[in-house]
Design brief:
By secondary structure, the protein is of the alpha+beta class. It folds into five domains: about 5-100, Zinc finger, CHC2-typedomain (DNA Primase, Chain A, Alpha-Beta Complex), CATH 3.90.580.10; about 105-240, DNA primase, catalytic core, N-terminal domain (DNA primase DNAg catalytic core, N-terminal domain, Alpha-Beta Complex); about 240-355, 3-Layer(aba) Sandwich (Dna Topoisomerase Vi A Subunit, Chain: A, domain 2), CATH 3.40.1360.10; about 370-425, no CATH class; about 445-555. Helices cover about 50% and strands about 10% of the residues. Helix 19 packs parallel to helix 20. Mean pLDDT is about 85; it is low at about 425-445.
Protein backbone atom coordinates (compact mmCIF):
# COMPACT_ATOMS: atom_id res chain seq x y z
CA UNK A 1 0.00 0.00 0.00
CA UNK A 2 2.63 2.49 1.08
CA UNK A 3 5.25 1.57 -1.50
CA UNK A 4 4.75 4.82 -3.42
CA UNK A 5 5.47 6.98 -0.36
CA UNK A 6 8.69 6.88 1.62
CA UNK A 7 8.76 5.33 5.09
CA UNK A 8 10.31 8.54 6.43
CA UNK A 9 7.45 10.69 5.10
CA UNK A 10 4.81 8.33 6.51
CA UNK A 11 6.62 8.23 9.86
CA UNK A 12 6.52 12.02 10.00
CA UNK A 13 2.81 12.00 9.15
CA UNK A 14 2.08 9.56 11.97
CA UNK A 15 4.12 11.66 14.39
CA UNK A 16 2.25 14.86 13.49
CA UNK A 17 -1.25 13.40 13.84
CA UNK A 18 -2.44 12.41 17.31
CA UNK A 19 -4.10 9.02 17.08
CA UNK A 20 -6.04 9.53 20.31
CA UNK A 21 -7.45 12.82 18.99
CA UNK A 22 -8.58 11.21 15.75
CA UNK A 23 -10.12 8.21 17.51
CA UNK A 24 -11.83 10.50 20.05
CA UNK A 25 -13.85 12.02 17.21
CA UNK A 26 -15.53 8.60 16.83
CA UNK A 27 -15.17 6.93 20.25
CA UNK A 28 -15.25 8.43 23.78
CA UNK A 29 -11.93 7.53 25.42
CA UNK A 30 -10.74 7.46 29.03
CA UNK A 31 -7.05 7.38 29.91
CA UNK A 32 -5.60 4.63 32.09
CA UNK A 33 -1.82 4.67 32.20
CA UNK A 34 -0.23 4.96 28.78
CA UNK A 35 -3.42 3.78 27.07
CA UNK A 36 -6.78 5.32 26.31
CA UNK A 37 -9.77 2.97 26.51
CA UNK A 38 -13.20 2.95 24.92
CA UNK A 39 -15.86 0.70 23.39
CA UNK A 40 -14.74 -0.70 20.06
CA UNK A 41 -16.28 1.00 16.99
CA UNK A 42 -15.86 -2.18 14.95
CA UNK A 43 -18.02 -4.54 17.00
CA UNK A 44 -20.78 -4.25 19.58
CA UNK A 45 -19.62 -4.35 23.18
CA UNK A 46 -20.59 -2.90 26.57
CA UNK A 47 -17.26 -3.27 28.39
CA UNK A 48 -14.43 -1.25 26.77
CA UNK A 49 -11.77 -3.47 25.19
CA UNK A 50 -10.54 -0.98 22.58
CA UNK A 51 -7.17 0.55 23.49
CA UNK A 52 -5.17 3.42 22.02
CA UNK A 53 -1.47 3.40 22.91
CA UNK A 54 -0.47 7.07 23.14
CA UNK A 55 3.25 6.32 22.98
CA UNK A 56 3.33 3.75 20.18
CA UNK A 57 0.47 5.56 18.35
CA UNK A 58 -1.28 2.25 17.68
CA UNK A 59 -4.82 1.10 18.43
CA UNK A 60 -5.92 -2.44 19.21
CA UNK A 61 -9.16 -4.13 20.25
CA UNK A 62 -8.66 -7.04 22.64
CA UNK A 63 -12.14 -8.29 21.67
CA UNK A 64 -12.24 -8.38 17.86
CA UNK A 65 -8.44 -7.98 17.39
CA UNK A 66 -8.60 -5.15 14.85
CA UNK A 67 -5.70 -2.77 15.13
CA UNK A 68 -3.17 -0.59 13.36
CA UNK A 69 -2.06 3.00 12.93
CA UNK A 70 -4.02 6.20 12.50
CA UNK A 71 -4.00 5.54 8.74
CA UNK A 72 -5.56 2.10 9.22
CA UNK A 73 -8.17 3.58 11.58
CA UNK A 74 -9.25 6.24 9.07
CA UNK A 75 -9.34 3.63 6.29
CA UNK A 76 -11.68 1.42 8.31
CA UNK A 77 -13.91 4.15 9.73
CA UNK A 78 -14.27 6.17 6.54
CA UNK A 79 -14.09 3.20 4.13
CA UNK A 80 -11.16 4.87 2.36
CA UNK A 81 -8.30 3.34 0.46
CA UNK A 82 -4.77 3.92 1.72
CA UNK A 83 -3.95 7.01 -0.33
CA UNK A 84 -7.25 8.74 0.41
CA UNK A 85 -6.70 8.19 4.13
CA UNK A 86 -3.14 9.51 3.86
CA UNK A 87 -4.36 12.52 1.91
CA UNK A 88 -7.01 13.33 4.53
CA UNK A 89 -4.50 13.06 7.37
CA UNK A 90 -1.89 15.06 5.46
CA UNK A 91 -4.40 17.91 5.10
CA UNK A 92 -5.10 17.69 8.83
CA UNK A 93 -1.36 17.87 9.60
CA UNK A 94 -0.75 20.59 6.98
CA UNK A 95 1.73 18.38 5.13
CA UNK A 96 2.14 18.32 1.36
CA UNK A 97 2.03 14.96 -0.35
CA UNK A 98 5.29 14.21 -2.18
CA UNK A 99 5.21 13.74 -5.91
CA UNK A 100 4.83 10.11 -6.86
CA UNK A 101 4.24 7.94 -9.89
CA UNK A 102 0.66 6.85 -10.44
CA UNK A 103 1.42 3.30 -11.43
CA UNK A 104 3.12 1.26 -14.16
CA UNK A 105 3.11 3.25 -17.41
CA UNK A 106 1.55 6.31 -15.79
CA UNK A 107 3.30 9.70 -15.81
CA UNK A 108 4.39 11.39 -12.61
CA UNK A 109 1.89 14.00 -11.54
CA UNK A 110 1.80 16.52 -8.74
CA UNK A 111 -0.92 16.65 -6.13
CA UNK A 112 -2.19 19.86 -7.71
CA UNK A 113 -2.56 18.05 -11.04
CA UNK A 114 -4.51 15.26 -9.35
CA UNK A 115 -6.86 17.74 -7.76
CA UNK A 116 -7.28 19.43 -11.12
CA UNK A 117 -8.19 16.09 -12.72
CA UNK A 118 -10.86 15.51 -10.08
CA UNK A 119 -12.25 18.97 -10.86
CA UNK A 120 -12.25 18.21 -14.60
CA UNK A 121 -14.08 14.92 -14.03
CA UNK A 122 -16.67 16.66 -11.89
CA UNK A 123 -17.17 19.36 -14.54
CA UNK A 124 -17.53 16.62 -17.18
CA UNK A 125 -20.15 14.82 -15.07
CA UNK A 126 -22.19 18.00 -14.78
CA UNK A 127 -21.87 18.60 -18.53
CA UNK A 128 -23.08 15.07 -19.34
CA UNK A 129 -25.97 15.34 -16.88
CA UNK A 130 -27.11 18.71 -18.23
CA UNK A 131 -26.85 17.46 -21.82
CA UNK A 132 -29.23 14.59 -21.02
CA UNK A 133 -32.14 17.04 -20.73
CA UNK A 134 -31.47 18.67 -24.14
CA UNK A 135 -32.48 17.57 -27.63
CA UNK A 136 -29.01 16.14 -28.17
CA UNK A 137 -29.47 13.86 -25.14
CA UNK A 138 -32.99 12.72 -26.09
CA UNK A 139 -31.92 9.25 -27.26
CA UNK A 140 -30.05 8.59 -24.03
CA UNK A 141 -32.93 9.91 -21.92
CA UNK A 142 -35.43 7.71 -23.75
CA UNK A 143 -33.13 4.73 -23.24
CA UNK A 144 -33.08 5.35 -19.48
CA UNK A 145 -36.86 5.81 -19.40
CA UNK A 146 -37.16 2.55 -21.32
CA UNK A 147 -35.11 0.81 -18.63
CA UNK A 148 -37.69 1.85 -16.05
CA UNK A 149 -35.92 4.86 -14.52
CA UNK A 150 -37.60 8.13 -13.70
CA UNK A 151 -36.16 11.64 -13.39
CA UNK A 152 -35.51 11.19 -9.69
CA UNK A 153 -33.49 8.01 -10.31
CA UNK A 154 -31.48 9.73 -13.03
CA UNK A 155 -30.61 12.65 -10.76
CA UNK A 156 -29.82 10.38 -7.81
CA UNK A 157 -27.13 8.55 -9.78
CA UNK A 158 -25.99 11.59 -11.76
CA UNK A 159 -26.60 9.86 -15.09
CA UNK A 160 -25.96 11.75 -18.30
CA UNK A 161 -25.34 11.69 -22.04
CA UNK A 162 -22.18 12.39 -24.00
CA UNK A 163 -22.45 14.56 -27.17
CA UNK A 164 -22.62 12.80 -30.52
CA UNK A 165 -19.97 15.02 -32.10
CA UNK A 166 -16.22 14.61 -31.85
CA UNK A 167 -15.21 17.38 -29.47
CA UNK A 168 -18.20 18.82 -27.60
CA UNK A 169 -16.80 18.00 -24.16
CA UNK A 170 -13.32 19.15 -25.12
CA UNK A 171 -14.55 22.61 -26.14
CA UNK A 172 -16.77 22.92 -23.07
CA UNK A 173 -13.97 22.11 -20.64
CA UNK A 174 -11.46 24.30 -22.47
CA UNK A 175 -13.86 27.21 -22.12
CA UNK A 176 -14.09 26.36 -18.39
CA UNK A 177 -10.31 26.81 -18.13
CA UNK A 178 -9.04 23.22 -18.26
CA UNK A 179 -5.86 22.62 -20.27
CA UNK A 180 -6.10 20.04 -23.12
CA UNK A 181 -3.05 18.20 -21.81
CA UNK A 182 -4.67 17.70 -18.42
CA UNK A 183 -7.91 16.47 -20.03
CA UNK A 184 -5.87 13.91 -21.96
CA UNK A 185 -4.17 12.71 -18.77
CA UNK A 186 -7.59 12.44 -17.12
CA UNK A 187 -8.85 10.19 -19.93
CA UNK A 188 -11.61 12.60 -20.96
CA UNK A 189 -10.14 13.12 -24.41
CA UNK A 190 -7.89 11.00 -26.62
CA UNK A 191 -5.28 11.94 -29.19
CA UNK A 192 -5.41 10.58 -32.74
CA UNK A 193 -3.29 11.84 -35.63
CA UNK A 194 -2.12 14.68 -33.40
CA UNK A 195 -5.71 15.82 -32.78
CA UNK A 196 -7.78 15.60 -29.61
CA UNK A 197 -11.24 14.05 -29.57
CA UNK A 198 -13.81 13.26 -26.87
CA UNK A 199 -13.31 9.83 -25.31
CA UNK A 200 -17.09 9.27 -25.06
CA UNK A 201 -19.47 10.10 -27.93
CA UNK A 202 -23.20 9.33 -28.17
CA UNK A 203 -23.38 7.24 -25.01
CA UNK A 204 -25.37 7.05 -21.78
CA UNK A 205 -22.93 8.14 -19.09
CA UNK A 206 -22.50 6.64 -15.62
CA UNK A 207 -20.15 8.66 -13.37
CA UNK A 208 -17.91 6.48 -11.21
CA UNK A 209 -17.72 8.19 -7.82
CA UNK A 210 -15.44 7.27 -4.94
CA UNK A 211 -16.64 6.72 -1.39
CA UNK A 212 -15.40 10.23 -0.67
CA UNK A 213 -17.58 11.74 -3.41
CA UNK A 214 -14.90 12.34 -6.04
CA UNK A 215 -15.64 11.60 -9.70
CA UNK A 216 -12.90 9.18 -10.73
CA UNK A 217 -14.02 8.35 -14.25
CA UNK A 218 -16.97 7.20 -16.35
CA UNK A 219 -18.68 4.22 -17.85
CA UNK A 220 -20.42 4.84 -21.18
CA UNK A 221 -23.22 2.66 -22.58
CA UNK A 222 -23.55 2.70 -26.37
CA UNK A 223 -26.87 3.33 -28.11
CA UNK A 224 -28.21 0.69 -30.46
CA UNK A 225 -25.71 -1.85 -31.78
CA UNK A 226 -22.62 0.33 -31.51
CA UNK A 227 -19.50 -1.39 -30.16
CA UNK A 228 -18.09 -1.71 -27.64
CA UNK A 229 -21.35 -1.88 -25.74
CA UNK A 230 -19.69 -0.47 -22.60
CA UNK A 231 -16.65 1.78 -22.59
CA UNK A 232 -14.80 2.82 -19.43
CA UNK A 233 -12.34 5.57 -18.76
CA UNK A 234 -8.84 4.32 -19.47
CA UNK A 235 -6.37 4.02 -16.57
CA UNK A 236 -5.37 7.46 -15.34
CA UNK A 237 -3.52 8.89 -12.33
CA UNK A 238 -6.88 9.03 -10.50
CA UNK A 239 -8.69 5.98 -11.92
CA UNK A 240 -7.93 2.28 -12.15
CA UNK A 241 -10.87 0.03 -12.94
CA UNK A 242 -9.21 -2.94 -11.17
CA UNK A 243 -9.14 -1.07 -7.88
CA UNK A 244 -12.59 0.49 -7.60
CA UNK A 245 -16.29 -0.33 -7.53
CA UNK A 246 -19.36 1.44 -8.86
CA UNK A 247 -21.74 2.93 -6.22
CA UNK A 248 -19.24 2.87 -3.35
CA UNK A 249 -20.40 6.41 -2.58
CA UNK A 250 -23.76 4.90 -1.55
CA UNK A 251 -22.32 1.83 0.22
CA UNK A 252 -20.21 4.01 2.52
CA UNK A 253 -23.27 5.03 4.53
CA UNK A 254 -24.87 1.56 4.63
CA UNK A 255 -22.69 0.01 7.34
CA UNK A 256 -25.65 -1.52 9.18
CA UNK A 257 -26.73 -3.65 6.21
CA UNK A 258 -24.05 -6.22 7.04
CA UNK A 259 -23.33 -7.34 3.48
CA UNK A 260 -22.61 -6.08 -0.02
CA UNK A 261 -24.43 -7.24 -3.14
CA UNK A 262 -22.01 -7.59 -6.06
CA UNK A 263 -23.42 -7.23 -9.58
CA UNK A 264 -21.74 -7.12 -12.98
CA UNK A 265 -23.03 -3.89 -14.46
CA UNK A 266 -24.07 -0.30 -13.92
CA UNK A 267 -27.74 -0.82 -14.80
CA UNK A 268 -28.06 -3.82 -12.46
CA UNK A 269 -26.74 -1.60 -9.67
CA UNK A 270 -29.10 1.26 -10.45
CA UNK A 271 -32.10 -1.03 -10.86
CA UNK A 272 -31.60 -2.99 -7.62
CA UNK A 273 -31.02 0.19 -5.65
CA UNK A 274 -34.09 1.83 -7.23
CA UNK A 275 -36.19 -1.05 -5.90
CA UNK A 276 -34.80 -0.77 -2.36
CA UNK A 277 -31.87 -3.17 -2.27
CA UNK A 278 -29.03 -1.65 -0.24
CA UNK A 279 -25.30 -2.34 -0.39
CA UNK A 280 -25.24 -2.93 -4.17
CA UNK A 281 -21.92 -2.35 -5.97
CA UNK A 282 -20.52 -3.39 -9.35
CA UNK A 283 -17.16 -4.15 -10.88
CA UNK A 284 -16.04 -1.66 -13.50
CA UNK A 285 -16.15 -3.55 -16.75
CA UNK A 286 -13.71 -6.23 -15.56
CA UNK A 287 -13.99 -9.60 -13.90
CA UNK A 288 -13.69 -9.39 -10.12
CA UNK A 289 -10.12 -8.68 -8.98
CA UNK A 290 -8.34 -9.48 -5.71
CA UNK A 291 -8.02 -5.75 -5.06
CA UNK A 292 -11.77 -5.26 -5.38
CA UNK A 293 -12.42 -8.21 -3.05
CA UNK A 294 -10.14 -6.70 -0.40
CA UNK A 295 -11.89 -3.37 -0.85
CA UNK A 296 -15.30 -4.98 -0.23
CA UNK A 297 -13.97 -6.62 2.92
CA UNK A 298 -13.56 -3.15 4.42
CA UNK A 299 -17.23 -2.34 3.82
CA UNK A 300 -19.03 -5.47 4.99
CA UNK A 301 -18.29 -8.87 6.55
CA UNK A 302 -20.07 -10.78 3.79
CA UNK A 303 -20.71 -10.51 0.03
CA UNK A 304 -23.68 -11.76 -1.99
CA UNK A 305 -22.70 -12.48 -5.59
CA UNK A 306 -25.59 -11.33 -7.78
CA UNK A 307 -24.57 -12.26 -11.32
CA UNK A 308 -26.77 -13.14 -14.30
CA UNK A 309 -28.55 -16.49 -14.18
CA UNK A 310 -27.20 -17.64 -17.57
CA UNK A 311 -24.21 -19.93 -18.12
CA UNK A 312 -21.76 -17.03 -18.41
CA UNK A 313 -22.98 -15.53 -15.15
CA UNK A 314 -22.74 -18.88 -13.39
CA UNK A 315 -19.13 -19.37 -14.51
CA UNK A 316 -18.29 -15.83 -13.42
CA UNK A 317 -19.84 -16.53 -10.01
CA UNK A 318 -17.62 -19.59 -9.57
CA UNK A 319 -14.52 -17.52 -10.43
CA UNK A 320 -15.64 -14.85 -7.97
CA UNK A 321 -16.04 -17.47 -5.24
CA UNK A 322 -12.44 -18.59 -5.78
CA UNK A 323 -11.26 -15.01 -5.28
CA UNK A 324 -13.36 -14.45 -2.16
CA UNK A 325 -12.21 -17.78 -0.70
CA UNK A 326 -8.57 -16.81 -1.29
CA UNK A 327 -9.19 -13.55 0.58
CA UNK A 328 -11.07 -15.38 3.38
CA UNK A 329 -14.26 -13.40 2.69
CA UNK A 330 -17.56 -15.23 3.35
CA UNK A 331 -19.60 -15.13 0.15
CA UNK A 332 -22.98 -16.39 -1.00
CA UNK A 333 -24.39 -16.64 -4.50
CA UNK A 334 -27.91 -15.47 -5.32
CA UNK A 335 -29.46 -18.15 -7.49
CA UNK A 336 -31.54 -16.37 -10.14
CA UNK A 337 -33.86 -18.36 -12.38
CA UNK A 338 -32.05 -19.47 -15.54
CA UNK A 339 -31.67 -16.71 -18.11
CA UNK A 340 -32.72 -13.85 -15.80
CA UNK A 341 -30.41 -11.05 -14.75
CA UNK A 342 -30.80 -8.92 -11.58
CA UNK A 343 -32.43 -6.06 -13.51
CA UNK A 344 -35.04 -8.32 -15.15
CA UNK A 345 -35.79 -10.12 -11.90
CA UNK A 346 -36.22 -7.09 -9.65
CA UNK A 347 -38.58 -5.47 -12.17
CA UNK A 348 -40.69 -8.62 -12.36
CA UNK A 349 -40.68 -9.73 -8.71
CA UNK A 350 -39.73 -6.61 -6.72
CA UNK A 351 -37.84 -6.35 -3.45
CA UNK A 352 -39.89 -9.11 -1.79
CA UNK A 353 -39.02 -11.54 -4.56
CA UNK A 354 -35.35 -10.58 -4.35
CA UNK A 355 -35.24 -11.19 -0.61
CA UNK A 356 -36.85 -14.61 -1.09
CA UNK A 357 -34.22 -15.79 -3.59
CA UNK A 358 -31.90 -18.58 -2.36
CA UNK A 359 -28.50 -17.29 -1.21
CA UNK A 360 -26.22 -20.31 -1.44
CA UNK A 361 -22.94 -20.55 0.44
CA UNK A 362 -19.82 -21.20 -1.63
CA UNK A 363 -19.86 -24.98 -1.17
CA UNK A 364 -23.59 -25.25 -1.80
CA UNK A 365 -23.33 -23.25 -5.01
CA UNK A 366 -20.38 -25.28 -6.27
CA UNK A 367 -22.36 -28.45 -5.61
CA UNK A 368 -25.32 -26.98 -7.50
CA UNK A 369 -23.10 -26.23 -10.48
CA UNK A 370 -21.62 -29.74 -10.26
CA UNK A 371 -24.88 -30.94 -11.82
CA UNK A 372 -24.25 -28.93 -15.00
CA UNK A 373 -23.98 -31.16 -18.06
CA UNK A 374 -24.99 -34.31 -16.17
CA UNK A 375 -28.15 -36.40 -16.34
CA UNK A 376 -28.47 -37.46 -12.71
CA UNK A 377 -31.48 -39.62 -13.54
CA UNK A 378 -28.91 -42.14 -14.84
CA UNK A 379 -26.50 -44.10 -12.66
CA UNK A 380 -23.50 -42.79 -14.56
CA UNK A 381 -24.66 -39.18 -14.17
CA UNK A 382 -25.35 -39.70 -10.46
CA UNK A 383 -21.90 -41.23 -9.97
CA UNK A 384 -20.17 -38.35 -11.73
CA UNK A 385 -22.17 -35.88 -9.65
CA UNK A 386 -21.13 -37.63 -6.44
CA UNK A 387 -17.47 -37.63 -7.51
CA UNK A 388 -17.59 -33.93 -8.37
CA UNK A 389 -19.17 -33.09 -5.03
CA UNK A 390 -16.63 -35.15 -3.12
CA UNK A 391 -13.85 -33.22 -4.82
CA UNK A 392 -15.55 -29.98 -3.72
CA UNK A 393 -16.00 -31.20 -0.14
CA UNK A 394 -12.29 -32.05 0.15
CA UNK A 395 -11.64 -28.31 0.49
CA UNK A 396 -14.19 -27.73 3.26
CA UNK A 397 -12.47 -26.94 6.57
CA UNK A 398 -15.45 -26.48 8.89
CA UNK A 399 -16.70 -29.77 10.42
CA UNK A 400 -20.21 -28.34 10.75
CA UNK A 401 -20.30 -27.21 7.13
CA UNK A 402 -18.93 -30.60 6.06
CA UNK A 403 -21.66 -32.38 8.01
CA UNK A 404 -24.44 -30.27 6.49
CA UNK A 405 -23.32 -30.81 2.90
CA UNK A 406 -22.51 -34.46 3.48
CA UNK A 407 -26.06 -35.11 4.67
CA UNK A 408 -27.38 -33.42 1.55
CA UNK A 409 -25.13 -35.52 -0.69
CA UNK A 410 -26.23 -38.75 1.02
CA UNK A 411 -29.88 -37.83 0.45
CA UNK A 412 -29.33 -36.80 -3.17
CA UNK A 413 -27.22 -39.76 -4.29
CA UNK A 414 -28.17 -42.59 -1.95
CA UNK A 415 -24.51 -43.43 -1.37
CA UNK A 416 -23.53 -44.58 2.09
CA UNK A 417 -22.03 -41.87 4.31
CA UNK A 418 -18.82 -43.83 4.98
CA UNK A 419 -18.33 -44.48 1.27
CA UNK A 420 -18.57 -40.75 0.55
CA UNK A 421 -16.19 -39.95 3.42
CA UNK A 422 -13.64 -42.41 2.05
CA UNK A 423 -13.94 -40.78 -1.38
CA UNK A 424 -13.47 -37.35 0.19
CA UNK A 425 -10.44 -38.71 2.01
CA UNK A 426 -11.42 -37.32 5.40
CA UNK A 427 -13.18 -38.24 8.59
CA UNK A 428 -15.11 -35.87 10.77
CA UNK A 429 -13.22 -35.01 13.95
CA UNK A 430 -14.34 -36.66 17.15
CA UNK A 431 -15.80 -34.55 19.90
CA UNK A 432 -13.04 -33.70 22.40
CA UNK A 433 -13.38 -35.06 25.93
CA UNK A 434 -12.75 -31.66 27.48
CA UNK A 435 -11.69 -28.19 26.42
CA UNK A 436 -7.93 -27.74 26.38
CA UNK A 437 -7.72 -23.97 26.00
CA UNK A 438 -9.34 -20.91 27.48
CA UNK A 439 -10.82 -18.38 25.10
CA UNK A 440 -9.29 -14.94 24.71
CA UNK A 441 -11.83 -12.86 22.81
CA UNK A 442 -12.65 -14.87 19.68
CA UNK A 443 -9.29 -16.67 19.75
CA UNK A 444 -7.70 -19.44 21.79
CA UNK A 445 -5.60 -18.30 24.71
CA UNK A 446 -1.98 -18.80 23.62
CA UNK A 447 0.02 -21.27 25.67
CA UNK A 448 3.62 -22.44 25.78
CA UNK A 449 5.71 -21.37 22.82
CA UNK A 450 3.05 -19.13 21.28
CA UNK A 451 2.56 -17.24 24.56
CA UNK A 452 6.30 -16.81 25.06
CA UNK A 453 6.81 -15.48 21.52
CA UNK A 454 3.92 -13.01 21.79
CA UNK A 455 5.13 -11.83 25.18
CA UNK A 456 8.66 -11.21 23.88
CA UNK A 457 7.40 -9.33 20.82
CA UNK A 458 5.04 -7.21 22.94
CA UNK A 459 7.84 -6.24 25.33
CA UNK A 460 10.18 -5.55 22.42
CA UNK A 461 7.61 -3.35 20.65
CA UNK A 462 6.92 -1.48 23.91
CA UNK A 463 10.63 -0.84 24.45
CA UNK A 464 10.68 -2.81 27.73
CA UNK A 465 13.61 -5.04 26.73
CA UNK A 466 16.74 -4.16 24.71
CA UNK A 467 17.03 -5.37 21.13
CA UNK A 468 20.30 -7.11 22.03
CA UNK A 469 18.38 -9.55 24.24
CA UNK A 470 16.73 -11.31 21.28
CA UNK A 471 17.52 -12.83 17.88
CA UNK A 472 15.08 -13.59 15.02
CA UNK A 473 16.09 -17.25 15.38
CA UNK A 474 14.45 -17.31 18.82
CA UNK A 475 11.04 -17.38 17.11
CA UNK A 476 9.57 -20.46 15.44
CA UNK A 477 6.40 -18.83 14.08
CA UNK A 478 7.26 -17.35 10.67
CA UNK A 479 5.09 -14.24 11.13
CA UNK A 480 6.59 -13.65 14.58
CA UNK A 481 10.09 -14.07 13.18
CA UNK A 482 9.50 -11.50 10.43
CA UNK A 483 7.99 -9.04 12.90
CA UNK A 484 10.84 -9.58 15.36
CA UNK A 485 13.40 -9.05 12.58
CA UNK A 486 11.71 -5.75 11.69
CA UNK A 487 11.70 -4.53 15.28
CA UNK A 488 15.26 -5.71 15.94
CA UNK A 489 16.42 -3.79 12.86
CA UNK A 490 14.96 -0.63 14.38
CA UNK A 491 11.74 -0.48 12.36
CA UNK A 492 8.70 1.10 13.97
CA UNK A 493 5.62 -1.01 14.79
CA UNK A 494 3.42 1.47 12.91
CA UNK A 495 5.38 1.17 9.67
CA UNK A 496 5.22 -2.62 9.90
CA UNK A 497 1.46 -2.92 10.33
CA UNK A 498 0.75 -0.27 7.68
CA UNK A 499 2.65 -2.42 5.19
CA UNK A 500 0.30 -5.39 5.75
CA UNK A 501 -2.60 -5.35 3.29
CA UNK A 502 -4.38 -8.43 4.59
CA UNK A 503 -6.66 -7.53 7.51
CA UNK A 504 -6.25 -10.92 9.21
CA UNK A 505 -2.45 -10.80 8.98
CA UNK A 506 -2.44 -7.26 10.39
CA UNK A 507 -4.73 -8.44 13.19
CA UNK A 508 -2.30 -11.25 14.06
CA UNK A 509 0.64 -8.83 14.09
CA UNK A 510 -1.25 -6.42 16.35
CA UNK A 511 -2.25 -9.30 18.62
CA UNK A 512 1.39 -10.36 18.91
CA UNK A 513 2.41 -6.83 19.91
CA UNK A 514 -0.40 -6.48 22.44
CA UNK A 515 -0.06 -9.50 24.68
CA UNK A 516 -1.45 -8.48 28.05
CA UNK A 517 -0.69 -7.97 30.84
CA UNK A 518 2.94 -6.85 30.47
CA UNK A 519 5.32 -5.91 33.27
CA UNK A 520 5.46 -2.19 34.01
CA UNK A 521 9.17 -2.05 34.87
CA UNK A 522 12.20 -2.93 32.73
CA UNK A 523 13.83 -5.12 35.42
CA UNK A 524 10.71 -7.24 35.71
CA UNK A 525 10.43 -7.34 31.91
CA UNK A 526 13.94 -8.80 31.65
CA UNK A 527 13.00 -11.51 34.16
CA UNK A 528 9.92 -12.38 32.11
CA UNK A 529 12.00 -12.35 28.93
CA UNK A 530 14.50 -14.80 30.41
CA UNK A 531 11.64 -17.12 31.38
CA UNK A 532 10.17 -16.89 27.86
CA UNK A 533 13.55 -17.56 26.23
CA UNK A 534 13.96 -20.60 28.48
CA UNK A 535 10.52 -21.83 27.36
CA UNK A 536 11.49 -21.41 23.71
CA UNK A 537 14.87 -23.09 24.24
CA UNK A 538 13.26 -26.08 25.94
CA UNK A 539 10.71 -26.37 23.15
CA UNK A 540 13.47 -26.37 20.53
CA UNK A 541 15.39 -29.03 22.47
CA UNK A 542 12.25 -31.14 22.80
CA UNK A 543 11.61 -30.84 19.07
CA UNK A 544 15.18 -31.89 18.30
CA UNK A 545 14.82 -34.78 20.73
CA UNK A 546 11.61 -35.93 19.05
CA UNK A 547 13.20 -35.71 15.60
CA UNK A 548 16.21 -37.60 16.90
CA UNK A 549 13.99 -40.27 18.41
CA UNK A 550 12.13 -40.73 15.10
CA UNK A 551 15.43 -41.23 13.33
CA UNK A 552 16.60 -43.69 16.00
CA UNK A 553 13.37 -45.71 15.75
CA UNK A 554 14.10 -46.31 12.09
CA UNK A 555 17.58 -47.75 12.80
CA UNK A 556 18.57 -51.36 13.32
CA UNK A 557 19.20 -52.73 16.82
CA UNK A 558 22.95 -52.66 16.30
CA UNK A 559 22.86 -49.01 15.18
CA UNK A 560 20.74 -48.07 18.22
CA UNK A 561 23.26 -49.68 20.62
CA UNK A 562 26.07 -47.72 19.01
CA UNK A 563 24.21 -44.42 19.46
CA UNK A 564 23.46 -45.22 23.13
CA UNK A 565 27.17 -45.89 23.73
CA UNK A 566 27.96 -42.44 22.22
CA UNK A 567 25.37 -40.73 24.44
CA UNK A 568 26.80 -42.39 27.56
CA UNK A 569 30.27 -41.25 26.57
CA UNK A 570 29.09 -37.65 26.02
CA UNK A 571 27.34 -37.57 29.42
CA UNK A 572 30.47 -38.83 31.20
CA UNK A 573 32.60 -36.16 29.53
CA UNK A 574 30.15 -33.36 30.53
CA UNK A 575 30.13 -34.50 34.19
Amino acid sequence: MSGRLSDAWLEELRSRVSLEEVVSEYVPLKQKGRRFWGCCPFHNEKTPSFAVDSEAQLYYCFGCHKGGTVVNFVMDMERMDFMDAVRLLAERAHMELPERSSGPGQPRVTQDERERMYEANRAAARFFHDLLWTNEGADALNYLYGRGLNDSDIRRFGLGASPKGWDGLLHHLEEAGFEPGLLEKAGLVVRRDDKLYDMFRGRVMFPIISAQGRVLGFGGRAMGDAQPKYLNTAETPVFNKRLGLYALNFAKNERSVGRLVLVEGYMDTVSLRKHGVKGVVATLGTALTEEQARLMKRYAPQVWISYDGDAAGQKAALRALDIFDAQDIPARVIDYPAGMDPDDFIKARGLEGFEALPKLDSTGYRMLRARDGLDISTQDGLTQYALRCCAILKKVKSPIEMENHLRRLVNETGYDREILLRQIGATLPEKPDAPTRRLRGNRSEPTGVERAEQELISMLAAGLIPREALKPEDFTNEEHRKLAQWLLDGGSPGAYVEGIEDDDARSRAMSAMNYSPLPAERDKAMEVAQEDLTTLRQARNQQRENEYKQKVDSLSQEQKLEILRRIDADMESES
